[in-house]
Design goal:
The chain is mainly beta and about 170 residues long. It contains 2 helices and 10 strands; from the N terminus they run H-E-E-E-E-E-E-H-E-E-E-E. Strands 1, 2, 3, 4, 5, 6, 7, 8, 9 and 10 form a 10-stranded mixed beta sheet that branches. The chain is extended, with a radius of gyration of 21 Å. It comes from Psychrobacter coccoides.
């Protein structure tokens, strides 16, 4: 997205990157919406035009390395003191659901001088991530959210001597 490049290259010093995380599952009554660097929480517009509330929670988001393939991943540590995520994961386990919780990362350009959004909608979005690994202790929950393996799909068809006997001369 050009917006994220503009933020890093051309924006004023008062523009900060406001990172949000949304975690949802069909069994939950509503998704978890967290903002990492706005202590009062924030109401923000999604890419759909809907305005939703993000609550503050201590959050560390590490984006995976840039690569040439379609795989994306985030390593997320949520300082929830075991209060937010474990009860929701218990709902999934109690229902014996095979569905992974879905993660959407959004970043907004936020003007810290005026305490307003520099742009209404997110300037960076990563969607379609599944929570696949999770660990927790009394202080935090850490999980990896990543895309389904995109590069494991086989394309084309295998050639065999049974189906293509003319290939024998090439061996």
């Amino acid at each position: 997205m050009d917006d994220i490049k503009d933020l890093h290259l051309d924006s004023s010093p008062s523009i900060a990157l406001l990172e949000t995380l949304e975690v949802s599952h069909s069994l939950w009554s509503e998704p978890i919406r967290i903002v990492t660097n706005h202590a009062d929480g924030v109401d923000a517009m999604l890419e759909t035009g809907e305005v939703v509330s993000f609550e503050f929670a201590p959050l560390i988001i590490n984006k995976g390395m840039t690569s040439d393939d379609l795989d994306q991943n985030l390593n997320i540590t949520l300082g929830d003191l075991g209060e937010i995520v474990p009860p929701l994961i218990k709902q999934i386990r109690d229902a014996a659901s095979d569905e992974f919780p879905q993660v959407t990362y959004r970043a907004y350009a936020f003007n810290t001088a005026s305490m307003t959004f520099a742009k209404d909608k997110p300037i960076d979005i990563i969607k379609g991530l599944n929570i696949e690994q999770m660990s927790r202790d009394h202080q935090a929950t850490t999980f990896d959210a990543k895309t389904s393996d995109k590069n494991t799909v086989k394309t084309g068809r295998p050639y065999s001597l049974d189906e293509y006997p003319d290939l024998k001369g090439l061996l």
